[in-house]
Design a protein that fits this description.
This protein is an alpha+beta fold and 212 residues long. It has four helices and twelve strands. Strands 1, 2, 3, 4, 9, 10, 11 and 12 form an eight-stranded antiparallel beta sheet that branches.
């Protein structure tokens, strides 16, 4: 083997190793992202940059109430009145990849996968009621200082408004309630579909820091 070919192969090996390490870091540790929707206003604005902590997914930790999470968007975004089951208010994920290559492309390379960013409102075993424009957890009104003045929480049309959060799931909503497609319409998010928690805002610089 000529020295030039050997050197070229060494560079190829180094590039492959670097790509693999970057993918592992992104999947298990953390990654940057850009806010693309308005569902978390005023907490998060469009085009802001965030650093996501994926250690939550790696350790399979249930997020705490108030934490902002990202999760895989359900395949079924709404239900009819006859499909709503308050005894099993869990989001539906259908047509999931079954082979290793398909899973790698979707979950590691993240091609063809949509994600939502919302705030955790209720935890497993808690009774959620949405009524009179407010949220009640186990009969107690939830204090939500992150909402803008005058914002009310309703379930418009068909949705989940009175249920118990199933085990290994969380109930999450956007802070911009009138303009957020969230668990009110598609159900609670299974733990295995939670991708990360929001660690810090990294852009713009004047808002750099922890996101509450």
């Amino acid at each position: 083997m000529s020295p030039k070919i050997k050197e070229a192969l060494e560079w190829v090996y180094c590039i492959i190793i670097a790509i693999v390490l970057a993918l592992l870091f992104r999947y298990y540790i953390g990654t940057p992202t850009i806010v693309q929707q308005v569902s978390m206003k005023p907490t998060l604005e469009q085009d802001q940059r965030l650093w996501l902590n994926r250690w939550t997914r790696t350790t399979k930790r249930i997020p705490e109430r108030g934490e902002i999470i990202t999760f895989e968007a359900p395949s079924k975004k709404s239900f009819t009145a006859t499909e709503i089951d308050n005894n099993n208010p869990v989001a539906k994920y259908e047509n999931e990849p079954t082979n290793i290559f398909g899973k790698f492309v979707k979950y590691v390379l993240e091609f063809g996968k949509d994600s939502y960013i919302k705030r955790v409102i209720a935890l497993p075993g808690e009774h959620v009621e949405i009524k009179d424009g407010k949220v009640y957890i186990n009969g107690e009104e939830l204090d939500e200082p992150y909402l803008q003045d005058g914002v009310v929480t309703d379930v418009v049309g068909v949705g989940f408004s009175d249920f118990v959060v199933p085990e290994n799931t969380v109930f999450a909503m956007g802070d911009n309630r009138p303009h957020s497609t969230d668990c009110r319409v598609f159900g609670c998010i299974p733990l295995e579909k939670i991708e990360s928690t929001v660690a810090i805002r990294i852009w713009p610089l004047n808002k750099w820091g922890k996101v509450d």
